[in-house]
Amino acid sequence: MINLNRRNALLGAMGALTAPICALPALAQDSYPVGPVRMVVGFTAGTPPEIFARMLAERMAKSLKQPFIVENKPGAGSVIATAQVAKAKPDGTTLLLGVAAGLGSGPHLIPNANYDPRTDFEPVGFVQRGAYFISVRPDLPIRTLKDLVDYARANPDKLSFGTPGVGTLHHLIWELLQAQTGIRLVHVPFPGTPQLVNEGVAGRLDLMIEGASSLVVPHVRAGKFQYIATTGPRRSAQFAQVATVAEQGFAALQSESWWVLLAPRGTPEALLRPLRQELAQTLATPEAKRLLESLGAYEDGGGGGSPEQVKAFMKSEYERWGEVIRRANIKVN
User: Fold this and answer.
1) 278-296: per-residue pLDDT in tens?
2) Cβ–Cβ contacts within 10 Å for residue 192, how many?
3) Is pLDDT above 70 for 163?
4) Fewest beta carbons less than 10 Å away: which of 47, 137, 144, 161?
């Protein structure tokens, strides 16, 4: 027969041993999945989305105690990367830093994209939003969009425009301008912004559309490029002298650069919550604000937003560019 004191002591010891075991399921439920997390980016290293993805991945790795690895999957204006993440397991180990090209226009231009941005992803949040700037080689007699159209009409198939890939909004804006005006330009696609800018600086491109990022702005200030329009809804504080496309009579060209962090459809809310919290905290840091400004975002960054806001915006952009592409009969070879 067990002594009562010994019995109580034994039960107490057993309780102490079993308490941590009982707590384990709750701990596992609140923690992020064990194993590397891939943050897929549809462009090469050194491009603006990839630069920010690396900073974000580094912060998330520290706070969520898991390896976060940036995976570059360039091609088709980020459609390849977007399609890959759309089909990934919704277990929190695959994320997409999605961009306007892959989510707004790409599925309309690439017939075998095989995903729907409106239904195939769970939003974490906006990363940034910003305007594009249309620039020309400074030795050309072009200072407005009207000048550009007039010059191109007089010199068909002579002006070249560079883009960071087929199917990007950069490409689509030029196609839309050609469809509206009847001018003929020559498209020169590149794997990403660094290669595009290098060719422009070397004088081998006539036209370019890019954000006001640190990859471009120093060359603009040095006179290597001349800004003639911004595609944003308002003038930029940084380049207040540059008129909007709407002010110049080309409102259909109004468009934005935007990035969002997404997970595959069906990713549990318990996994999305810590990602949203970390994204919001990252975007609030001075480091992120400085970096986004240097990458061409609006002065306030344009990041954050609720999942519902992100979904509604993605839906509107997808449907808007689909309509533009159909009406202008824009095709990508």
Assistant:
1) 999 999 999 999 999 888 8
2) 21
3) yes
4) 144
Residues 6 or more apart from 286 whose CB is under 8 A from it?
Answer: none
Q: Is the pLDDT of residue 19 over 70?
A: no
Q: 38 versus 238: which is more confidently predicted?
A: 38
Q: Is residue 252 within 8 Å of 176, Cβ to Cβ?
A: yes
Q: Model's pTM, two decimal places?
A: 0.81
Contact by Cβ (8 Å): 37, 60: yes
78: nearest Cα among 170, 162, 174: 170
Distance in angstroms (rounded) separating the CA atoms of residues 315 and 140: 39
In angstroms, rounded to a whole number, what is the distance separating the alpha carbons of residues 317 and 230? Answer: 18
DSSP string, 136-205: E-TTSS--SHHHHHHHHHHSTTT-EEEESSTTSHHHHHHHHHHHHH----EEEE-SSHHHHHHHHHTT--
Give the number of other Cβ atoms within 10 Å of residue 214's Cβ: 14
Tell me the C-alpha distance between 96 and 39, whole Å.
Answer: 6
Q: Enumerate domains of the chain plus CATH numbers.
A: 37-129+256-328 (3.40.190.150), 131-253 (3.40.190.10)
Output the CA torsion 304→309→315→316 (10° steps). -90
